[in-house]
Amino acid sequence: MALLTAKTFSLQFNNKRRVNKPYYPRKALLCYQLTPQNGSTPTRGHLKNKKEDHAEIRFINKIKSMGLDETQCYQVTCYLTWSPCPSCARELVDFIKAHRHLNLRIFASRLYYHWRPNYQEGLLLLCGSQVPVEVMGLPEFTDCWENFVDHKEPPSFNPSEKLEELDKNSQAIKRRLERIKSRSVDALENGLRSLQLGPVTPSSSIRNSR
């Protein structure tokens, strides 16, 4: 597996609210680890957007091409620089529903267009389809750094300080995601309350009519 450079990790997984000068584009990058339940060596790789295909779609196609044994269960962990867009969220849900032997977990460094309702719905669709979506914290950033980055050349920054900075920045993003999830719970509770109230009876309808 070709490893990421320390610079690529630092720039692309950067989870600050705004990029400092010199400005650069924060691109979509997906690192995946597929671990067989039988304890075999994990398979790792990383993908980025290519032409019309988002990294998530390339990931789906990559897993399909592996010819995995469907009688065996696999744990799949993905570290994303950006959370999935609504279209990719639907594709991931359909993929997991069709491949019950895969247990997928998604960790994102940043939330993509999190203020837009359709992007929030995409995140909720994943969470409601047994595909947990969480924000990367210190354990995930550390695992990504240790397993997907080339350490042959010393980085231009202190890795421990960088990981601590990423973890500190992630706290606000985690709260943002929890607020999105709580809105879904509130909507569900409101719907249940409406069901408990039941339809208006004919007598009450007549009594309340003008």
From TrEMBL:
<dbReference type="GO" id="GO:0010526">
    <property type="term" value="P:transposable element silencing"/>
</dbReference>
<dbReference type="InterPro" id="IPR016193">
    <property type="entry name" value="Cytidine_deaminase-like"/>
</dbReference>
<dbReference type="InterPro" id="IPR041512">
    <property type="entry name" value="APOBEC3H"/>
</dbReference>
<keyword id="KW-0051">Antiviral defense</keyword>
<dbReference type="GO" id="GO:0045087">
    <property type="term" value="P:innate immune response"/>
</dbReference>
<dbReference type="InterPro" id="IPR002125">
    <property type="entry name" value="CMP_dCMP_dom"/>
</dbReference>
<dbReference type="GO" id="GO:0044355">
    <property type="term" value="P:clearance of foreign intracellular DNA"/>
</dbReference>
<dbReference type="GO" id="GO:0051607">
    <property type="term" value="P:defense response to virus"/>
</dbReference>
<keyword id="KW-0399">Innate immunity</keyword>
<dbReference type="GO" id="GO:0000932">
    <property type="term" value="C:P-body"/>
</dbReference>
<dbReference type="Pfam" id="PF18771">
    <property type="entry name" value="APOBEC3"/>
</dbReference>
<protein>
    <recommendedName>
        <fullName>single-stranded DNA cytosine deaminase</fullName>
        <ecNumber>3.5.4.38</ecNumber>
    </recommendedName>
</protein>
<dbReference type="GO" id="GO:0070383">
    <property type="term" value="P:DNA cytosine deamination"/>
</dbReference>
<feature type="domain" description="CMP/dCMP-type deaminase">
    <location>
        <begin position="4"/>
        <end position="126"/>
    </location>
</feature>
<dbReference type="GO" id="GO:0005829">
    <property type="term" value="C:cytosol"/>
</dbReference>
<keyword id="KW-0862">Zinc</keyword>
<dbReference type="GO" id="GO:0004126">
    <property type="term" value="F:cytidine deaminase activity"/>
</dbReference>
<keyword id="KW-0479">Metal-binding</keyword>
<keyword id="KW-0378">Hydrolase</keyword>
<keyword id="KW-0963">Cytoplasm</keyword>
<dbReference type="GO" id="GO:0003723">
    <property type="term" value="F:RNA binding"/>
</dbReference>
<dbReference type="GO" id="GO:0044828">
    <property type="term" value="P:host-mediated suppression of viral genome replication"/>
</dbReference>
<dbReference type="InterPro" id="IPR050610">
    <property type="entry name" value="APOBEC_Cyt_Deaminase"/>
</dbReference>
<dbReference type="GO" id="GO:0008270">
    <property type="term" value="F:zinc ion binding"/>
</dbReference>
<comment type="similarity">
    <text>Belongs to the cytidine and deoxycytidylate deaminase family.</text>
</comment>
<dbReference type="GO" id="GO:0016554">
    <property type="term" value="P:cytidine to uridine editing"/>
</dbReference>
<dbReference type="GO" id="GO:0045869">
    <property type="term" value="P:negative regulation of single stranded viral RNA replication via double stranded DNA intermediate"/>
</dbReference>
<dbReference type="InterPro" id="IPR016192">
    <property type="entry name" value="APOBEC/CMP_deaminase_Zn-bd"/>
</dbReference>
<dbReference type="GO" id="GO:0005654">
    <property type="term" value="C:nucleoplasm"/>
</dbReference>
<keyword id="KW-0391">Immunity</keyword>
